[in-house]
Amino acid sequence: MDLPPELVYLTQQGNDYRLIHAIWNACLVCLAYDYVLTLDDEVRYIWGKRLSKARLLFWFSFKWFAYTAFISHFSIGAILTLRIHAIYSCNRTILYILSTLLCSELIAEVILIVFISDHFSVLHLSSLFPGCAPTHIVPYAWTYWIPMTVFESALFLLAAAKAVRYLLNPDTPKQTPNLALLLVRDSIIYFGSVLALILLNLVIWKAGRSSLFAVFPS
To answer: How would you classify the pairing of strands 121-124 and 132-135?
Structure first.
């Protein structure tokens, strides 16, 4: 027996909202778990220490995230840029290229957010699904993820190129400090994971239903 179209639609919407709610909760748990794991390092290297550029970026990127998302985004991008800069022995060309990409990414994202948010309105969900969802989403909303994809791809490719160079050099264990090898290894894992998540978001925004844009209170 076929269900009425209205019931099918409501069931579909409910499943999407429940999925997004579960993803939000999972992300919050992962964030809390990561913070607990690194709290001892934060106390040792950040708390009570003299303020430096690196510590300033840390405070902006993490502590002020809820208040200044744009500054947080810039700070995180700057930290990742400096990480690749260090891997490439402080090559200024790499620094200039990545800095230009980062600034271009932020400018493009701001422009896209303005155009996208100018069209949609907010729909408050029912008490069964507390939260809200945007309506009248423009077809090109998925392009928001393109600037971020370009920047993160550049970071990943640069880290991968350095890793391949180390692997092809038989003298790498003798000539390369362990810290440099750890930076490259962790960069491959981190940038690869971030790039995969960004691409997943791009696909969902491009092919997914509007109900997948739902936002739930933490």
So the answer is: antiparallel
Mean predicted confidence (pLDDT) in 162-187: 74
- Measured CA distances, 100 to 81, 89, 96, 97, 147 (Å): 10, 19, 6, 5, 12
Q: CA 75 to CA 128: how far, in whole Å?
A: 37
The predicted structure's pLDDT at residue 115: 84
Cα 83 to Cα 156, 179, 187: the distances in Å are 12, 12, 8
Contact in structure between 104 and 147 (CB atoms under 8 Å): yes
For the chain, what's the residue count?
218
Q: Of 145 and 21, which is predicted with more confidence?
A: 145
Quote the tokens at residue 214: 């739902």
pTM: 0.70
